[in-house]
Amino acid sequence: MQCYLCKTPSKFFIRKNGYDLFRCPHCSLVQTNLGKPYGQFLADFYTAGYFTGEARAGAYENYGRDKPYIVKNMETFLSRITHFKPKGMLLDIGCAYGYFVELALKNGFDAYGIDPSIHAVSKVDPSFKKRICSGTLSDVSYQKNSFDVITMFDVFEHLADPISDLQKVRGFLKDDGIIMIATGDTNSLAANILKRRWTFYIPPQHLFFFNKKTITETLQRTGFAPVTFFRIGKWLSLSYILHLAKTSGESKVASVLLKIVEALRLGSISLYLPMGDNMVIIARKSHAECLLW
Q: Please, what are the domains in the chain?
């Protein structure tokens, strides 16, 4: 398999959930060999089960119930954004049930969202549902230079062609606008200790796995310049933590504990995990020609 970024032949890294992951020996980018058309995969995979604990998805345990903790994490993102842009037009890519759009609207932004999941868009609050559209970046055509802020939280690793998508995002962004990307860091301590059990190694939905070096390279190729990097911990429900440990962490103990926790109705207890494996990048347009390849 050829490396998406540098075209070096990648080497087999791990096999998980029936999919092979390859790691580039030159630039260190890790990528999933999806082996199927991406468009059809989107339609088949991001259904209700993705947000409600279906085992094959290895994703959210109960996205609706966990809204308070998801929003709490998003408040951290918004506080960072307002240091650069206290108001303006905002687009949240991969907005799911629209929680960040709702939060941004409450804080004075003219916010919009997009998500490929028909199920997720159906769950958006009716009061601002007209601001959310179902589809991918290739499906939409927002006005050029229209957004002050564009966000991608736990989305970038899902994209089949992140360079192409970033080029489109760049066109939507104002010249003085910012983008914020939150994704996993393959160079983090958690990734190095947990190895194949690291929760970000979740094929097939996660297609690319970045570190600071590879995501910087990706941004620079599309005419962006990183402004700041930082790491975050996350508030998660006990049920979600055990669900992740059961699915992505491949823990049989967690599977048993999850049943007990749910039976005792303790799943909504929240815990803060300062794992440090989530990196967040804020970038601006570099105002240089994009490096096409």
A: 37-234+276-285 (3.40.50.150)
